[in-house]
Write a structure and sequence with these properties.
260 residues
Length: 260
């Protein structure tokens, strides 16, 4: 053989491992890493090698070091922030979002049913239990957070890294209220009960490995959510119209005495 096999520098091996964890969504944008000493001990490497690895990932834009420590870079921020501004004032956004979400969510749920590992299934079971508990004590904030978490766990269980990162971007936009107001959705009478049933249906189908049932449950959930959001929007438009009729007196001159 004309070429010698050379060992990979330890710093490169550490950087590759951490990069893989970022790619797989194990380390998430915005998350703070352990302090250097603790992280080196956890990985079983020297601090100088770890420091070199962190510098390599920082050069790639995957990590950022601040006074508070080293964090996973919000590497899609340059996409998310302008996208949020672009979409914020367009009435077509919600419809397009749900149309896209219905397709992706159904496919992701089907993949999750086929690909979920036991750790994936345990995480989904635990999330469903917390969602039921939050529903039982009427904690809408916790229940909504479990809602977001469950969908994220389904994306993770689909084991498609591109799908995972794209849907996390959409999740960030959703939390910014670009597509609709989730608080309004949860305050709608009867909606929380239906959403709980739908989330359980999605979760149980994934847990049982039934891809068709998972796809069907996910599509039904997205259709219901969009329909409800549209009902809320129409109600708001009707209320706004009624209030404008009440306030019209502030815009119209009093009738002259001769016209009375």
């Amino acid at each position: 053989m004309s070429q010698q096999i050379r060992p990979v520098p330890l710093a490169n091996a550490i950087a590759e491992r951490l990069q893989t964890m970022i790619l797989e969504g194990v380390l998430r944008p915005g998350e703070k890493l352990l302090p250097e000493r603790e992280l080196a001990e956890t990985l079983g490497v020297s601090r100088p090698s770890l420091r070199q690895a962190l510098n390599l990932l920082e050069d790639k834009g995957l990590l950022v070091t601040q006074k508070s420590g080293t964090m996973v870079s919000r590497f899609l921020k340059e996409l998310v922030d302008p996208l949020a501004e672009l979409l914020a004032d367009d009435q077509r956004v919600a419809a397009d979002y749900f149309e896209f979400r219905r397709s992706v969510e159904s496919h992701a749920s089907g993949l999750a049913a086929l690909r979920a590992t036991e750790p994936d299934r345990k995480a989904i079971r635990d999330c469903l239990e917390r969602m039921r508990a939050a529903h039982g004590i009427d904690d809408t904030t916790l229940e909504a957070n479990c809602d977001v978490e469950l969908h994220g766990l389904v994306y993770e269980a689909a084991h498609n890294v591109l799908l995972l990162h794209v849907m996390r971007v959409l999740g960030d936009l959703l939390r910014k209220g670009v597509f609709y107001n989730r608080e309004q959705l949860y305050r709608r009478p009867g909606v929380r009960d239906t959403l709980l049933e739908q989330h359980i249906a999605i979760g149980e189908a994934v847990l049982s490995g039934d891809a068709k049932a998972a796809e069907k449950a996910a599509a039904a959930h997205i259709n219901f959510t969009y329909s409800t959001i549209e009902d809320i929007r129409r109600d708001e438009m009707r209320m706004a119209t009624s209030l404008r009729r009440i306030d019209r007196k502030d815009l119209v001159a009093d009738p002259s005495p001769t016209n009375r």
